[in-house]
Amino acid sequence: MAFLDVQHVTKRFGGLTAVADVSFQMEQGEIVGLIGPNGAGKTTLFNLIAGTFPFDEGRIVFDGEPLNGLKPYHVCRRGIARTFQITRPFLEMTCYENVVVGFIGRDGFTGETPERRRRAEEILKLVGLDEFLHTQARHLNLINKKKLEIARALATRPKLILLDEVLGGLNTGEMVQALDLIRAIRDRFGVTVLWIEHVMGALMQVVERLLVLDGGRLICQGDPQTVVRDPRVIEAYLGEADD
Ligand SMILES: Nc1ncnc2c1ncn2[C@@H]1O[C@H](COP(=O)(O)OP(=O)(O)OP(=O)(O)O)[C@@H](O)[C@H]1O
Prior knowledge:
The protein is α/β, with parallel strands linked by helices. 39% of the residues lie in helices and 24% in strands.
């Protein structure tokens, strides 16, 4: 049985079908990229997996259990975390406090314990924010805000993390740091990664498989080198040769 099994999922907003009969599977420990032109339905698909919106048709099974109808906090407790394209830290809180909020999201409020403190420090070290433990999030630059976004997600002890455009706005050196971090999420924490990204060159260095959405439909999937040469994918990005 697949770790994540998305079966014929459809989501409509009024007359617009944002996600149309999408099916794919992921195995535990994979890093998979989700690409497609603007408006292809990528973020909507994340929202459906994360329980932000209900879907109209289909079924999503995660780690052997259906997710249909679950609210986001229940999906989180099942082990799915997400990050947002525009980072959403609590700006007045320190990095440490932001991570503790992630613990509360997963376990409820059970107060600070030495074990929680150790875990928060471990997560902030992994993402490279150990020197900013007691810095308010509003003082962080963009790359560090993105690292904190990932730390907050890791604090919920996910088995699957949904990353939404982590690389946007980063310079080359910062991208290298971000790619190392994404590899570490999988290698150190064993977390499976589904990742929306527009920066293709960087994405291709890390992902083992690509899924391509266009107009809400999954038009292609497979190993990255084959997928980017697929005529359907080229057409989706560039339009027909006559256009
Ligand atoms: N809450 C909503 N209500 C109505 N329409 C929506 C809603 N969310 C998304 N859409 C529409 O669904 C379609 C898919 O949007 P979505 O944001 O999922 O695409 P995307 O692939 O993530 O695009 P981008 O790469 O630009 O972020 C778009 O036409 C969008 O306008």
